[in-house]
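Ops channel
N.P.: pipeline sanity check, posting one input/output pair.
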């Protein structure tokens, strides 16, 4: 059945007239590449995550690459990465010629399993890269303790994780370097963008220099009134700088970050309340000692339900959904290069087969949230009945209502 309601996309940026005006103002200023707004955004974002140093760049991928480079990761080194993540987390390891060692995750929240990290440690392990999956911080105390014991660097992939906290500490303070994403679907957006934050002044300086062609100092200022044409290249750097148009967006989004997070949290609570009693759905959990950014809302279907069919049905009910993630070890490149089988990392494999990410973003209306809840419960109920018969029907009060 195709619903007549308008399509609810899986993700949508929350952009207001304030963002529009900020971008127009940059265009009017004629300074449209890296400049004062990028520097302003950098300072503000660093302060927002309690980090002494912040390097704003044009993606989280760039930030992760710069962090590995600054940490001195070399060909032959090993970097431990959870398999349940996006392409970026491991591809940057290959950029520096190192080996991504993929490890399994916890079933409860899809964050990296610390015991799996311990098993994967070797004398060549140079970096552990936890990914704060969906915006829930990973088990950072245990990970940092391991890293200190063995002299390993921790570079956190916090692409999903702003704003959030761990044991009362800001997510920007937990690792040696923490990398954020401001991609279009993320919790705050600059269209494309990212940042690396750290307490290490030397690494921050290296990342800053390498983010703009390896030019020694304030390369971005060279066309400004107070700038100089003279520059020196001290290393073969990259072109990773964040422009002022993007930064202007970021400054406004940053000011709205808590308000947008509060809205996502309210949506997550509504989903939790609606889905908690449905026996064919499993929900991920956030440990009580941390807060989530609520970037993703993942449901796991009972193993015998058809996940792909469920997503198709949601689409026919005008609801966009996604899957986070196809585990890296199941992709041809990692599977074939490093000889993984799907069952090599069984928790992630099972989670992938059963997971669906539902829409959760601050621009969603209550009516849209209800539409998602209604469709999910109806489909879960119908599928459970087709497997087990009508006696598995939930109590009348929880029966989903047809959306108009
Ligand atoms: C876990 C994770 N890491 C890194 C990235 C890369 O972010 P960006 O697109 O800003 O490079 C993403 C993007 O979706 C992600 O989900």
């Amino acid at each position: 059945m195709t619903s007549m309601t308008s399509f609810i996309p899986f993700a949508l940026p929350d952009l207001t007239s304030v963002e529009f005006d900020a971008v127009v103002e940059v265009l009017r200023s004629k300074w449209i590449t890296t400049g004062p707004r990028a520097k302003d955004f950098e300072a503000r974002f660093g302060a927002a995550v309690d980090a002494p140093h912040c390097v704003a760049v044009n993606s989280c991928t760039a930030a992760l690459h710069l962090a590995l480079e600054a940490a001195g990761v070399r060909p032959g080194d090993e970097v431990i990465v959870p398999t349940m993540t996006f392409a970026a987390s491991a591809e940057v390891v290959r950029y520096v010629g190192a080996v991504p060692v993929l490890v399994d995750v916890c079933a409860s929240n899809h964050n990296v399993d610390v015991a799996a990290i311990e098993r994967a440690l070797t004398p060549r392990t140079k970096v552990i890269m936890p990914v704060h999956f969906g915006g829930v911080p990973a088990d950072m105390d245990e990970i940092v303790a391991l890293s200190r014991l063995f002299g390993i660097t921790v570079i956190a992939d916090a692409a999903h994780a702003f704003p959030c906290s761990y044991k009362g500490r800001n997510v920007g303070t937990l690792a040696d370097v923490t990398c954020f994403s401001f991609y279009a679907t993320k919790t705050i957006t600059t269209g494309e963008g990212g940042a690396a934050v750290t307490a290490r002044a030397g690494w921050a300086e290296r990342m800053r220099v390498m983010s703009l062609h390896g030019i020694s100092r304030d390369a971005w200022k060279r066309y400004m009134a107070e700038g100089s044409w003279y520059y020196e290249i001290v290393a073969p750097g990259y072109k990773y700088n964040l422009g002022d148009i993007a930064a202007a967006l970021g400054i406004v989004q940053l000011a709205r970050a808590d308000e947008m997070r509060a809205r996502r949290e309210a949506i997550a609570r509504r989903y939790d309340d609606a889905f908690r009693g449905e026996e064919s759905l499993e929900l991920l959990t956030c440990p009580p000692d941390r807060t989530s950014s609520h970037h993703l809302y993942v449901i796991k279907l009972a193993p015998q339900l058809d996940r792909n069919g469920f997503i198709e049905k949601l689409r026919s009910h005008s609801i966009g959904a996604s899957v986070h993630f196809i585990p890296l070890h199941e992709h041809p490149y990692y599977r074939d290069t490093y000889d993984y089988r799907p069952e090599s990392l069984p928790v992630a494999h099972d989670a992938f087969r059963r997971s669906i990410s539902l829409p959760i973003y601050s621009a969603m209306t209550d009516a849209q949230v209800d539409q998602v809840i209604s469709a999910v419960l109806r489909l879960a109920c119908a599928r459970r009945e087709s497997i087990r018969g009508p006696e598995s029907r939930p109590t009348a009060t929880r029966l989903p209502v047809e959306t108009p």
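N.P.: looks fine end to end. Confidence is low (pLDDT under 50) at residues 395-404.
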